């Protein structure tokens, strides 16, 4: 790929001036991965021309990149292979945050009024009361294995130590064990996407909203062999040399060959207003948490009341992780049911009863699950060897914290054909 080569006239940043231009890359879907991939591609080389296409409005709440807060952590129980991606992503969140602060200052805006940081480093407490036959806590041990393999500072806590620190928040019993990662916390997802898109546009990226991609075809052209044509629901056709599909829950509709590997499920999260919100402010005394529960297939996780939230500054967010209710993302979003609310209330009552004073809001979001719960980053199927078309999918409910690194790796692959980030274990060959 020759950066900056075109078939016709230049374009206007933010809005394509002509569909006859050939882009160096098009990113389809501007959720977490897509927004960071667009930014990474745009800042790799100012001569590279990139376009992002979003089927809804930017920052919509119909997918998997919203919800006010997401845990970021590095002592990763899912697998140690993810730790480098977690660490790189946390670094990139901070770099983007620093860029936004500097930009606000250079624009003559008082940063404290215009800039909210992306990361809240209040720590994350991992807790389990699930023991193996030999008396070990496998969940806690997996967290510890990742921490030791990558030198992540953590503290192991028994039930007495947790009661001394957190007994006024959580209902801790003597069979529980914990692992605290002080350097973890939560990230603000809507702001992360907003800042990433803003930086991408500042670096020359173009964006089209409210435009569904209906076809991707590899064709020859006068400019290049294997030019990729991307057509949208508005009838527009764009030409490009590379495509990244980061369409989240809609991936299998655009790439049906991957439909057997992707299952969309509907999840529920809710916000509770505690009687004493000051006890629940993010700090070393009130970290984010994840609870692995005996005889329960679903994890329970939550966040302190974020004082910088525009909607939930006095509310504790709590959710169940891993509900397996399948859902078609094109169906209307139903209200959270009474049964779903009761299920969550029962879990909150048993674990963090002081937060149960009043539930003020509930919302559904989507997980796109892979068969093994690991992400997929690979060439998109169905195009043979003729096109430079890649896809990131199946983040399986634990991917937002890694979207900066995943987006950067995807941008490397579509622009340079290779990446130094360790994403080889996410190849789709393992599923075939």
Q: Which radius of gyration do the C-alpha atoms yield?
A: 22 Å
Count of β-strands: 21
The coarse overall form would be: globular
Task: Enumerate how many helices there are, as a single number.
Answer: 9
Largest sheet geometry: 8 strands, mixed
The CATH topology assignment of the largest domain is D-Amino Acid Oxidase, Chain A, domain 2
Structural class of the secondary structure composition? alpha/beta
CATH homology-level superfamily of the largest domain = D-Amino Acid Oxidase, subunit A, domain 2
Alpha-carbon distance between the two ends: 30 Å
Helix content: 10-25%
Q: Averaging pLDDT over every residue, what do you get?
A: 91
Spans of at least 5 consecutive residues with low confidence: 1-14
Q: What is the N-to-C succession of helices and strands?
A: EEHEEHHEEHEHEEHEEEEEHEEEEHEEEH
Strand proportion: 15-25%
The CATH architecture assignment of the largest domain turns out to be: 2-Layer Sandwich
Name the strands of the widest sheet in spatial order: 7-8-6-16-17-18-15-19
Instruction: State the CATH class of the largest domain.
Output: Alpha Beta
Plain-language structure description:
It is a single chain. The chain is an alpha/beta fold. It has two domains: 22-64 and 190-259 and 373-431, 3-Layer(bba) Sandwich (FAD/NAD(P)-binding domain), CATH 3.50.50.60; 119-186 and 263-369, D-Amino Acid Oxidase, Chain A, domain 2 (2-Layer Sandwich). The chain is 25% helix and 24% strand. An eight-stranded mixed sheet has the order 7-8-6-16-17-18-15-19, sandwiched between helices. The protein has a six-stranded mixed sheet with strand order 10-3-2-14-21-20, with helices on one face. Strands 1-13-12-11 form a four-stranded mixed sheet, with no helix packed on it. A hairpin with a 4-residue loop joins strand 12 and strand 13. Helix 2 crosses helix 6. The longest helix is centred in the first third of the chain and has 24 residues, at 83-106. Residues 1-14 have low confidence and may be disordered.
């Amino acid at each position: 790929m020759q950066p900056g080569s075109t078939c016709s006239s230049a374009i206007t940043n933010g809005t394509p001036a002509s569909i006859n231009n050939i882009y160096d890359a098009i990113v389809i879907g501007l959720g977490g991965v897509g927004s960071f991939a667009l930014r990474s591609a745009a800042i790799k080389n100012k001569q590279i021309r990139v376009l992002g296409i979003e089927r809804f409005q930017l920052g919509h709440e119909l997918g998997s990149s919203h919800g006010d807060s997401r845990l970021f952590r590095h002592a990763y129980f899912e697998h140690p292979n993810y730790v480098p991606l977690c660490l790189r992503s946390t670094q990139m969140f901070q770099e983007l945050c620093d860029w936004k602060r500097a930009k606000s200052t250079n624009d003559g805006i008082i940063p404290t009024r215009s800039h909210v940081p992306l990361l809240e480093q209040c720590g994350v407490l991992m807790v389990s009361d699930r023991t193996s036959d030999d008396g070990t806590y496998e969940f806690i041990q997996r967290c510890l294995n990742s921490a030791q393999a990558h030198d992540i500072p953590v503290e192991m806590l028994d039930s007495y130590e947790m009661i001394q620190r957190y007994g006024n928040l959580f209902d801790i019993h003597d069979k529980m064990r914990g692992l605290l990662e002080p350097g973890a916390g939560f990230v603000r997802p809507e702001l992360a996407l907003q800042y990433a898109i803003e930086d991408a546009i500042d670096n020359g990226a173009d964006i089209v909203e409210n435009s569904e991609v209906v076809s991707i075809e590899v064709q020859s052209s006068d400019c290049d062999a294997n030019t990729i044509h991307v057509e949208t629901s508005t009838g527009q056709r764009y030409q490009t040399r590379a495509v990244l599909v980061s369409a989240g829950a809609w991936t299998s509709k655009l790439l049906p060959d991957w439909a057997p590997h992707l299952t969309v499920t509907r999840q529920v999260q809710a916000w509770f207003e505690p009687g004493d919100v000051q006890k629940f402010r993010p700090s070393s005394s009130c970290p984010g948490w994840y609870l692995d529960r005996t005889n329960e297939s679903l994890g329970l996780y939550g966040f302190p009341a974020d004082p910088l939230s525009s909607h939930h500054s006095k509310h504790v967010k709590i959710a169940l992780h891993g509900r397996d209710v399948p859902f078609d993302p094109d169906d209307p979003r139903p209200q959270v049911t009474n049964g779903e609310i009761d299920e969550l209330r029962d879990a909150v009552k048993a674990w963090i009863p002081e937060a149960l004073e009043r539930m003020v809001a509930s919302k559904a979001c989507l997980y796109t699950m892979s068969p093994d719960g690991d992400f997929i980053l690979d060439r998109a199927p169905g195009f043979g060897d003729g096109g430079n078309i890649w896809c990131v999918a199946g983040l399986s409910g634990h991917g937002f914290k890694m979207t900066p690194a995943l987006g950067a790796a995807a941008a490397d692959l579509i622009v340079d054909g290779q990446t130094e980030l360790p994403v080889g274990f996410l190849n789709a060959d393992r599923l075939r």
